[in-house]
Amino acid sequence: MNGRWRRLDPRTLLAHCAWLGAPLGSLALTALATGGRLDARAWITLAVIALVFAGITATGFLTWRRTRYRVTADSLELRTGLFTRRVRAVPLHRVRTVDLTANPVQRLLGLTVLRAGTGGGGGRSGHEGELSLEALSRSEGERLRAELLARAAGAGQGAGDPVLAVADARWLRYAPLTFWVFGGVLTVAGSAWRALDAMGVEPWRIGFLRDFFREFGHSALWVTVPLALLVVTALGVVGAVLLYAENWWRYRLEWTDATTLGVRRGLFTTRAVSLERARLCGVSLREPLLLRAGGGASVRAVAGGLGNREENRRRSVVLPPAPRAVAERVCTGVLGVAAGPELVLRPHPRAALRRRVMRALGFGVLPVTVALAVLGWLLTPVLLYCAAAWTLVAVPVARALARDAYRSLGHGVRGRHLVVRSGTFGRETVTLDRDAVLAWTFTQTPFSRRSGVATVTAAVAAGEDGYRIRDMSAQEAVGFAEFAAPGIVSEFVVRTGA
């Protein structure tokens, strides 16, 4: 770049017209539901859309004409504003991430959105430390991204094999082993219900649905309930696979140079996220219950400079659900240390097991048993049998889950890294650079104090901001913290001893 001001790509104006899809689609659905007979409200809506389209198009054209950007010797600058001119500048030495994203419309037009972040993200929105160029041609975005990263990069250690993982179609089998098998169906169904209700369409009065419920809704529940569960499961599996494919198609994880870890993915909406090596504080190997049962895991990077907590969770994923062996290899490639379940970690005291058993029984089994028993006493004795059956089935399951949660507990130090593991429904093994630990927090409730355990939190300026070692021995807590990150608690220990 020679420092001269440049315009965004003129095809940006066409991309901004994509918002017409939602209102026009709503009108089309209304027309189908009413047999093509549009009422006065629909025609008024169409006229409003035309007026808004004209106004937004004119505003977009003026905004495009008044927007410029340039790269100088030491900063990336963006000049915007219709009536009030605004110039934002990001020093190149503070650039931590340069991401490229493109939605389906932008991909069709050959455009991409470049976001350069400094890792500030201190405000509520998390965008104070970010500068966005929307939109550039694909070639210009790639070239500008490479230039910004090259100028911002400092000296770093070289990596071994630069390519850590690439997409494999066989990974699609792990997509159904997630929450979205059911949660995604309920979310989509709720959104469709609200959309139809907003258009004045009553879903239960749609022809085939009305006939189905009239025939089977009351007289054959033994058929409709299992059938409904089967349909929801099937839709969830298909939706999870499609969502996985859209998010992770053409996935590639590699060291783009000695200092930058790059993640590229996406089918319709492409995404390219860069993580600076200097901001990497660790890795998180995540094994939810179903995914663990299927032999899979996913990996997130514990890194700073990725925006607020919500953005960090979205942008820190470096490996989707995949075979556990691949996840362990990615952990090793990203941080240079193994983080798999074969690590031998310090066990936690038996009091931690008792606490998990009591929680599982007290919060998972007892409330349902009491509710069914009370309703059975008030309404019908059948519910009393249901309460007894629930207790007989739920108690062994709760105890098994509590034991699994206890077996998952562990902590230890391996070389220059602190390793923490916990969880059963969402087991997570976090490997942190010991130098990244900034503070320790020791937490005890009256019950944990009586049990002789404490929860120790390692605070880091990355990821979730803090990672907990749950229910470790209270007698070992201070000594382990001082051993894992020397110099943080020693002063307080000496003062207390004095």
Structure description:
By secondary structure, this protein is an alpha+beta fold. It folds into four domains: 12-152, PH-domain like (Roll); 174-248, no CATH class; 252-347 and 409-497, no CATH class; 351-398, no CATH class. 45% of the residues lie in helices and 25% in strands. The strands form four sheets. A seven-stranded antiparallel beta sheet has the order 6-5-4-10-9-8-7, sandwiched between helices. The chain has a six-stranded antiparallel beta sheet with strand order 13-12-11-16-15-14. Strands 1-2-3 form a three-stranded antiparallel beta sheet. Helix 2 packs antiparallel against helix 3. The longest helix is centred in the last third of the chain and has 29 residues, at 350-378. The N and C termini lie far apart (62 Å).
Which descriptors apply to this entry?
PH-domain like, 16 helices, 498 residues, seven-stranded antiparallel beta sheet, alpha+beta
List the helices and strands and how they pair.
Blueprint: H1 12-16, H2 21-33, H3 40-65, E1 68-71, E2 75-80, E3 86-91, E4 97-102, H4 104-108, E5 111-117, E6 130-137, H5 138-152, E7 163-166, H6 180-198, H7 207-216, H8 221-248, E8 252-257, E9 260-265, E10 270-276, E11 280-288, H9 289-293, E12 296-303, H10 309-315, E13 317-323, H11 324-335, H12 350-378, H13 382-408, E14 410-414, E15 417-422, E16 426-433, E17 437-443, H14 446-451, E18 453-460, E19 466-473, H15 474-484, H16 490-497
Helix pairs in contact: 2-3, 6-8, 12-13
Rounded to an integer, what's the Rg over CA atoms? 28 Å
Shape: flat
Oligomer: single chain
Separate helix tally: 16
Distance between the termini: 62 Å
The number of distinct structural domains comes to 4
Calculate the mean pLDDT score and round it. 81
Q: Tell me the number of strands.
A: 19
Tell me the β content.
Answer: 25-35%
Main-sheet strand order equals 6-5-4-10-9-8-7
Taking the sheet with the most strands, its summary is:
7 strands, antiparallel
What ranges have pLDDT less than 50 throughout 5 or more consecutive residues? Answer: 122-126, 154-160
Structural class by helix and strand composition: alpha+beta
Helix content: 40-55%
